[in-house]
Design goal:
It contains 3 helices and 17 strands. With 205 residues, it is mainly beta. The chain has a 12-stranded antiparallel barrel with strand order 1-3-4-5-6-8-9-11-12-14-15-17. The protein is globular.
């Protein structure tokens, strides 16, 4: 996996890495269940990947069953599928990710029986930190200020910083760290990383 492709992949892994703030709970509870929904919208083209899966971890041990699958279904379009506790994938996607190839802006749509809603639940825009800003929406219109900001570092790791009223927190809430076969999501508390990752991301094909 080339380093520039890995960094580009990391920059995409944004939307779901963080649970959105309290207003608009009905939409955001759906987003919350898709913990890594936006994480993969660019990687498919860069690494010729068609399927990416996420796995919960406990004390550093990765579950044998995936809890989420993201599939490239059309140019600039990915479907997000949830899994039950036995690793069985649902029939219909729970979310659809669409990317504007001209400006890199991504939209996340919740679905009803696999049919995307008319307006997006989240909008993700590239920022000048080499990462993305994540915006929640109201009736499809993005909020003025992002709910989180993602910054890349020289080592290919993305740091997730919550924001409030446009002011970014000093300490990150999460880090997206490259591994030998994918990436780990590491939670932060009081500015310090937890010992074990909370989730593992694996590129399947």
């Amino acid at each position: 996996m080339k380093s520039n492709s890995m960094i580009a992949f990391l920059r995409t892994m944004i939307s779901i890495c963080e649970i959105p703030s309290d207003h608009k709970k009905s939409i955001r509870n759906q987003v919350k269940t898709q913990v890594l929904t936006l994480c993969f919208s660019v990687i498919f083209g860069l690494l010729s990947a068609q399927t990416v899966q996420t796995f919960n971890t406990q004390n550093g041990i990765t579950s044998i069953f995936p809890n989420q699958t993201i599939k490239n279904v059309a140019p600039n379009t990915q479907n997000v599928y949830s899994h039950n506790n036995y690793g069985i994938q649902e029939i219909f996607p729970s979310q659809v990710i669409k990317t504007n190839p001209q400006n890199g802006v991504k939209q996340v749509f919740n679905t009803n029986n696999g049919i995307p809603e008319i307006t997006p639940a989240q909008v993700i825009k590239p920022n000048h930190y080499g990462g993305f800003d994540v915006f929640e929406t109201s009736n499809g219109i993005p909020d003025i200020s992002p709910s989180k900001t993602i910054k890349s570092d020289p080592f290919g790791t993305l740091m997730v910083h919550p924001t409030q009223n446009g002011i970014q927190s000093l300490a990150p809430s999460q880090a997206i760290v490259p591994t030998s076969n994918g990436f780990d999501i590491v939670q932060y508390k009081s500015g310090l990383p937890e010992l074990f990752p909370s989730k593992s991301i694996k590129i399947k094909d």
